[in-house]
Structures are given as C-alpha cells and as structure tokens.
Amino acid sequence: MERVQYSLERSLPQLRLLDEHKILTKDELRSITSQRQALEARLIRRKADKADFLEYLSLEHDLNDLVLLRAKKRVHDANSKLKKEEDKHKKKLLPRNFFRKQAATYSAVCISIFERMVQKFRYDVSAWEQYIAWARKLKMRVVVGRVFARALSLHPTHVSLWISAADYELNGNADTTAARTILQRGIRTNPLVSSALPGHREERGMHEYPSAKLRKTSSGAAQVHQDFRAIHWILTEYEQGVLRLWVEYFRMELVFIERLRRRWRVLGLDSGAEKVSMPTSMDAFGSVRETAHTVAPEDHELGSEHESDSSDDEASALEASAQNSVPEASLNEPESFSAPVQAPEAGAKVPSGHQQIMSGSIPLVLLANAQKTLPAAVQLYLYIALLLLFSEFPFYDSVILRENGEVVSVRCSDGPLGTGDQLRNRLIHGVLTNTQSTAKQNWGEAGEQVVQVLSSLHAILHPWSSSIHSELEWSTLPASVAKDELEDNHLLHGASRLHSIHELCVDSLYPLAQIPVSLRIAESGAGVLDPWSIAQPVLFLLNLLSARLVVRSETPKSVEDQDNFMSLSIASDELSVNVTDVQWSPTTYLAMLAQSGDLPLAIRAVITGFQQQVPTSTDSFTLAYLSVLRFLANPTRAGIDEENLLKYIARAEDKLLSGLLNDGPHLDLAWLALEKVMRRVSQQTAKLSPDSKELSSLFTEAKRLVKTDRIHPGAWLLYERIGFRIAQLQTDDTLESPFNFHWVADSTEVSTARNSWVNMLDACTSVSIIAQDITAPVWGLLVLYLECTGSTSSKDGNLIVPHSARISLWVDYILWVQRIVSDEANVPRKRARKAKRWAQSSMELAVTRTAALLASSQLVGTARAHAQALHDAVVERVFFSIGVCSNPAEDNHASPDHVKDHMSDWLLRTSSASVDCWLQLAQRDSASSEVVSDNAHVENFQRAKKFYERAVSQAERESSPNCDSVWLAYLSFLVKTKRDIPTAVSTMQRALQHLSALDAAQAQALQRSWQALIGSDV
C-alpha cells in the first residue's frame, strides 16, 4: 500500500489548490480521494486489468474538465462584475498561473498512469496507441516523439506504428525530413525479402527448381505449387503491411514535391515542367536526397499558420512539466548534409537538384529501389497501387482521376496537358516501364499477359497519360477548382494523410484479384500448377477497370439462386440461369467520356492495341483479348450501352472467333465451339416463334461436335438439350428416339430409347475419361463470367465444365425417365405398372453405373471427388423422383411413403453415397417430421433416422474430421421431432465416447452444442 499512499500524497498540492479557491467542495474532494485510492489499489494488483488503467484515466479526464469548467465560469462571472465597478469581486479572481498549474498536474497524473500501463502491457500495441493519441491531442510533441520511439523499439514489425509516426512528423510537425527518415528505417526494419516467401530460394544459392526428393515431400510439393517467380495473389497480413509502408513512402514523397511546387508557384519560381535528366542508379539518389533535405526545413512554415501562439505556449509549458516523467529511447538521428539551407527568393534561378525533385525524380528512383528490394512475386500489387496513387494525387494544374471514377479538375492552364499532368504522366510511365521489366524477368507467361493487357487497357484506364490524349475533347471536364485549391489546399491536405490501417490504393486491390467462388466451385484448380495463374491477371485488371467505369449493385433473386451461376440443379428444358438483379450506373469518368464523344476513341484504342499484339503473342493472350471483348460488351461491367459501339465490339469479336476456331489446333477450344452454338440456341429460344430451320441446323452442328469430341460431356449435354427443345416445339421424325419417345408397352422403342441414353452416358462416363478431365477450361469460365449480367444471363456454365456437364447429363436422364412415367398416369393399370417397373429399373441402372466408378483404383484425388459428386447427385435425384415408381412386389396403390421406404432400403444396401449425401437426404426428407407428430409421418421419421444412422456410422468408419457436426445433426433431429428422447440421450453418450477417443476438443464442443440444443428446445 506504500505505492498507493505515495500516489495520493503527490496529488495533495492539486487538492489544496482546488480547496483554496473553492473550485470543489470538501465532500467532492473526499470522493475524489477515495476513488483514486481504490483505483490505485487496483493498479498494483499482480494481475491488473487494462480496463482499470483506462477507468483511472477517464476519472482524471472528467475531473480536469469539471475543474476547467468551474474555473472558467468563476473567471467569467468575476470579470463581468468588475466591469460594473464592484471591487469586492476582485478576490474571486483566480491567480494567473492557476490554469497552468492545473494543466501541469493533470498531464503529470495522466503520464504516470500511461507509463505504468505501457510498462504493464508493453506488448499491447493498442496501449501505446492510446498513449500517443492522448499526447497528440494535447500537442505534446516531445512526449509523442519519445513514446513513438519506445513503441517502435518494442514493436518494430508493427507497420502501422511506423506509418503513424511518419504521418505525425509530416502533417503534425510539417517535418518531411523526419518523416522520410522514419519511413526509411521502417522499410529497413521490415524487409520483405525472397526468403520470407515460400519458394523464393534464388538468393540462397539453390537451383531454380527443387530436387526430386524435395518434390516428393509435402513441404516440397507446397513449394513447387507456388513457383518462386509466380505472382502471389493471396498475401499475409505482414506482406500487406510492408506493401502499405512502401505506398505511404511514395505518398510522402509526392506530398513533399507538391508542397514545393505550390510554394514555388506562389513565389513565381520555375514550375518544374521542363524535362530533366533522371538519375539512373542508386548512387545518384544521394544528390537528390541531399537536395531534398536542404529544402525540407521550410516545411515548418506550412504547419505554423494553422496553430495559434497561445496554444503553442500552453502545450510547451505542459510539456516542460512532463518531460522528466517520460523516458527517452534511442533512435538513429537523420543523416546530416553539409549543404546549406537556403530559402528561395522570387525570381531566383532554380538549382538543378531542385529541378530534379520538381520533375519527380525521387519517386522514380525510389521505384527502382523497390524493384530491387521487394520480391517480384508481390510487385504487381505495388505497381497497380502506385498507378492508382499517381492517378488520384492532387497535382496542381492537372486532372485527377480517382479509383471510383470521380474526376476533379485542378487545371489552371490551357492546352491538352498541364504541368501537373506532365508530372503525373512521367510517374505513370515510370511505373509501366518497371512493370514491363519485372514481368519479363520474373513472371513468365503471366507476366507477358500483364504487360500486354495493361498496355492495351491503359488507353481507357488513364487516357490523359496515353498516346490518345491529344485527340480527346476537353470541353466536358468539370469546372476547375484550381483557385480555391491554391488558397486553402483542401485536396492536398486530404491526400497528405498517411494511412496506417487501410490504404485504399493497395488494400482495395486484394478483393479484385481473387477468383470468385462461383468459378472456384467448378474444381478448376487441380494438379501442381493452378490453371488460373494465366487468366487471373486478366480478371484482376478488368475488375479494376470496371470499378473505374461503373457502380454495380447486385441483389439476389432468391435464396436458391445465391450459390452461383453454375448451379447443378438444371431442368432439361432450361438453357439459362438467373442469379441476381444487377443495377448499374456510369461513373463520372465514363459519363464524361460518353458526353464528349471520347468513349469510341478510347475503345478503338483498346481494341487496336490488342489487335496489334495478337499476331506476335501467345495463344492465351488471344483468349485474354476475347475476355476483354466480352467484358466491354457487358453494360453491367463496362457501362457501354451505345448501340453502334456495341456493334463495333461484336464485329471485332466475330473476327477474332473466326480466326480462333479455324486456326486453333494449338488450343483446347472445345468449350468455345460449344459456347458459340449455345449462344445461337439462346437467341432462338428467346424469340416468340423460333426458327425451326435454324434449330435443325443447330442440332446438326451439335451432332458434328459430338462426333468430333465424343468424350466431352458438354457436347453430349448440348446435343441432348437442343434435341429436347426441338421435340417440344415440333414433331420431327428424324430425331433420335429418346427425344420424341412415347411409352408403348411391349414395343422395341422402350429398349431402343433407353439404349440411346445409355450410349450417350457411357461415352463420357468411363473411368479413363473422368481421370482426364479433372481440370476445367478456365478461359471458358472467365469468358462466361464476364458476360454474365445477372437477371439477363443466358449462360450455362455446365456446358463448359466437364464435371458439371456430366452430372447435368445424368440428372437429365433421370428427369427424362420421370417424365415418361408421368405421362402414363391415366392409362390402364397393367400398362402403368409396366411403365413404373421400367422406370425403377432405369433409375437403379443410374445408381449402379455411377457406383461402379468408385470401385476403380485409378480414380484418386480430384478425379475421385468428381466421381463421388456424380454418384451423390444421382442418388439424391433418384430418391426424390421415385415417388412416381411403385414397388412391383406390392399393390399398385401403395402410398408414396411405402415406395420411398422400398427405394431408401435399396439405396442403403447398394449405393456408395458420401456422408454429406446421406445428411442431405435425411434433412430434406425429415422436413415434414420436425413439427408434426401424427402417425401419417411416422414413415418419414423412421426413414430419416436410417439415413442419419448411416451417416454417423460412415463418418466414424472414415474418421471424418466433421464427425462432431454429423453427430450434432443427428441429435438435433432426434430432439426436435419430439419422438425419441431416450434414444437421443443414449446416442449422445455414444457420440461422446467415440469422439473422446479421437479428439477431446471435438467431444467438448459437441457437449456444449448439446446443452445449447436442449436449452433452446426447452
């Protein structure tokens, strides 16, 4: 308690001062003392809580506010009465040093509490941040600097602290030199070298490819999977922080340059628009940096005009009383330069070093340094972030184009480009040059894709820095705010802030670069190399362009449609998938291009750029060009809805497709031929009266595709669906029997029809075929995804993905059987019985054929997962379609529940469905059993119980990692149906015994879930 008594004794001078001047009453002083004593006792506990320190600080803050409020009211009342010549009120005036003493006492107490908090919780970054925020609020510069130094020495890898410290020096103290030094030390302390990334071993003297032994191990396989030269799309939190640190370093240098430009413009000096030679090596960086330091001290002039003298005096006095309470930390001092500090005078000649700074040489040299320092795998994010930063930075006498498509004009000169535009263009072209250099040296084919697509799209991403800027109209630019900006520097102040937590230029890129879940569900990533590695850069750049052109909002149409545009539950007569209602509106940038008539010029420049590179580029670049054309033709993504412009894009696409389909032996373009026929079918089915001749021609084309590629499930699926569509629209005797088949008992058409289906299914469902098509054509998925427009989508992804096409074909077969039997509802009993017997045998054939695939040892990994998914889909479809098929051994009038019971028993005996399939069957079939409890649904309960028991036993046998969730689903079913509580309790005990032997944590989690389940049910 001596520590408590010591702290209370230190507060006696403050209490005497408040009591002497009647600021607080005796009772209030006693209450404050007792609260301080209780809090001090809580702070010295062995396990002190951080909330106790914060509560103590809140008490002192409230007390200080109360004292100041009463003191100011006392002074105000006394002064107002003195004006009325009432001399007796002079004694109510407070001494001149009262407020200074109160401020010193308040700061000393708070610093003491903060110091003890950061000593107790030294590894809690938030404690240091709260300390810094309090000191910054009181403008205690020395305290802030010392606390920053101590925090950084304890948390050198916490990037946000480095950025916050630099932001304080840049904007709080207007000291660019200190900010530059802090950021440079932060980058040196947090290197993102190649050894920090998996697979980067070039600097360690290892070979480009790992040894055979390394490739056989799990860690070696992981390293091979992520080649050290490949672009990394998913970064760790640390890697993201380092990139943010680099981007903020570039931002700081841009702020420094722009402050000089604006100051020299006011002084009438050179604006820095002339071309100068740029340093080409890091040796030249010293002279540029030295010049930067010679002019940096003048930045203090910017901060002095925003702070009053009185506030500075008060903060200085407050700091003087608290400096001894804050320990110092050793930080390397900024490098000193011998060059004298000289303030430029009006009309003076600008030194050459200063001219290099004005022309943007520092960011360009820093860019070259980043290229050498950072691993190539993460540099793409940096380059794109810098393009966005340079594009939206408010250079005076330029046009600002922000990421969301907002356009702001700060132009003050005539002509196509202002001095700020010229500076921006130099920086942007420097980034493009570095991107091209890094791509050629490190990124392989994906790098070529990045350079070619980015160079072609640059005409519309930022036309003012492309070759077409001189051809653009400038009449539709928004009104310039140059005059107001030069007076208040509003845009520059906003852009000067360094973002320690979330930097929009770089952190907004990560979601744009990720493959959508709807495409990853297609199991397209298989094998050692991800097939998306080539197509992902194209998707990334197109998403970036879309954010600049349109504002999209998507609303799911229904819960069932939220999964993705490649849903597997497709009826046979459907050729379109409606996912979402998409609403879009053009951004300010796109509206400006359209209004001025510059949009066709920009689109023509993009298409011309691609066409010029197609003859000398790789095959994948041609498909990237097709993806861009589909993107531009989609109004919800590119915002282009002008009819003539869409026709121009369509003509370019037709020309490209003709070349691809005629000269495409080097590519796997089976999906492209299917997609072309599918588009023509969609156009015909959208008409009120489809052209029968055109449909017949399409059916002939589908036959040709089947003959060309008999093992592709998508070709058979297209062939089958076109045939069914023709059979619905007209009677054509030339069609194969399955499409115009009608049940006729004792007819050869019965066996012929099913044999036609079996031949189609066998052609694409063998073990060898499934093992070959484990990967999907990612370019086909990307093209369909970019063309998808939500409610107006007419794209069926199942035709593209072999695995999905095979499932859809088998499901269509089962639906065809169900449709045939449903047509026999009002026929004689004997004929209907034969039809249902035939239907049941046809469905059982589907189950046994797909189950036989799983018995093969040739299917492993992804191929086996595809075969399992096919069998599960068939089992589910058969079970829920069997209501139309009765058991031949029973009476013809057997109820649907008896029919389902018979089929469920057969499936449990013969099928090889997965645990998830049994759970799906149980949950869907027991939906009507969870609420009602009459005897009519006893069959549903018993049937669902069998499915759950099979799922539990199979999960135990396979040692499934989700075994606890399977048990919980079964227990939830038993409890909610209110039918078998004793069985539920015994099942719970059995589950705990099993899980305890496997994983004690899972057993505990299951027990907690069981208690919550029982509590909610009660």
Mean pLDDT: 78
Helix content class: 55-70%
Strand order of the largest sheet: 1-2
Per the principal axes of the C-alpha atoms, what is the gross shape?
A: globular
Task: Quote the distance from N terminus to C terminus.
Answer: 51 Å
List segments where confidence is low: pLDDT < 50 over at least 5 consecutive residues.
198-226, 278-289, 291-310, 332-341, 524-528, 558-579, 887-893, 929-933
Rg calc: 37 Å
Q: Helix segment count?
A: 45
Q: How would you describe this structure to a colleague?
A:
With 1018 residues, the chain is an all-alpha fold. Helix content is 64%, strand content 2%. The chain is built from 45 helices and four strands. The strands form two sheets. It has a two-stranded antiparallel ribbon. A two-stranded antiparallel sheet has the order 3-4. A hairpin with a 5-residue loop joins strand 1 and strand 2. Helix 9 (176-189) packs antiparallel against helix 12 (237-267). The longest helix is centred in the middle third of the chain and has 43 residues, at 419-461. The radius of gyration is 37 Å and the shape is globular. The relative contact order is 0.05.
